[in-house]
Every structure is written in structure tokens, then in C-alpha cells.
Amino acid sequence: MARTVRDTNLETRTARLRLVARGKPYWRVLESGLHIGYRRTKTGGGTWVARRFIGERKYAETKVGIADDLQDADGVSVFAFKHAQEAARDWWKQEERRELGIAPDTGPYSVADALRDYFEAREHRGSKGTQADRHASNARIVPELGKIELAKLTTKRVRDWLTALAGAAKLVRTKKTSAKRATKAIDASDPEAVRARRSTANRVLTILKAAMNHASHGEVRVKRGFIPACASLQIIVIHQQ
Description:
Blueprint (H helix, E strand, L loop, with lengths): L12 H4 L9 E6 L2 E7 L5 E10 L2 E10 L10 E2 L1 H20 L10 H15 L4 H11 L1 H4 L9 H12 L3 E3 L9 E3 L6 H27 L1 H6 L17
Parallel strand pairs: 4-5
Antiparallel strand pairs: 1-2, 2-3, 3-4, 6-7
Helix pairs in contact: 3-4, 3-7, 6-7
């Protein structure tokens, strides 16, 4: 969770009611480029606003909600100072995602969501090999693990998936008009074929690891409270021999 900022002029209704009523908000820095503001009105109660730096000395501003000056906070429409900070940070994150072309992060955050955000971030950076990795993910990761909530993905579940993948039939290219994927069984008596299949499985696992790492170090961890259940995922590997 983000640290709650303290401000003696804004954090209590008693202190806020002593402020002079004015159109310009009383601003407090939450972090670089993000401010929470309180606009004191002449009628008595005030409102919370937030602003984010957008470059060239300009800010985008939004109304957060009503301050709990005259009624108790509910965290939905009436906000205490702490609630207003949380709402401001949520707004900032959503605006950052929108600018990056990333879908809003609402609802449970699944493995498929993590993969999607990971590939979109790679595309934004111009990373090579993104399309091939996305195809591999759609074929080998999403069907089996995609619907699982990321915070509930266990090491055992990943290990079982990887073991099955190492022994799964190989996908082969088909005509673009074909609706089904063709497969070719692995000859278990051929050591080279088995080794190659395990190597492929490990490469697909690398994609999953990278997506989880991207999620655990990004805004998802703050917004969703993401806890990497697969902290030991880095040591999972199918041995080649």
C-alpha cells in the first residue's frame, strides 16, 4: 500500500474549516507529478481534487469527491483525507494506463491479464520477438493457465503445467484457412526429440516468468495487492537430460 501523506491543514475537518474559502485549491504533493487538493467553498463544505503533471508546466485536473466536512466519510462519494489520496492515486494510475494504451485494471487480475499487459509493454518499447512470444503464449499458456487469478497461481500448478507441456505433442504449421491446429506426437524413444521438447517448454516458461515479474514490479502490485504466490517460480525448469 502507498504511504498516506500527512498534512495538518487538510487531514482533519476541524483544520480544513479554518482555511480561507477560495477558488484555488490548497495543494499537497503526494508524489512526483501528483497532487491532492482541497477547495474550500463559502457555503461551508469543501471538495477534493487531484492533478497530475502532463508536461510543459501543465496539469490535468479532476474532481475526486466531496470532503467529509459536514458528513461522515464513506469512501465512495464522501472522502476523508486518506480516502481522497487513494482515489487520486487510482485516477493517476488509470490515466497512465490509458496513455500507454493499456486496458483498465478492473476485476480479478488473471494470468491472461498479466500476459496481455506484458506484451503491450514490450510492444510499447519496440522489443523484438514480441509477436512470436505472444503466439507461443496464446497456444501454450493461456489455454491452461489464463483464467487463473495471478495471486492464486501456485508453484505446484505451474510445475504440473510445465511437465505436461514438456510431453505434449508438437504444434505444426497449417494453412491460414485452417481453423484447427495440427499436432505431431513426440517420439519418446528419441532422446533428441525429447530434449528439444523440454527445451521448448522451458522457453515458454520464460515467457510466463517475465510476465509475472512485470506484474509484480509494476502498478498491478499496488492496485491489486498482488502477492507473487509463485515466488519460487524462478527455480522451476525441466531438466534437459
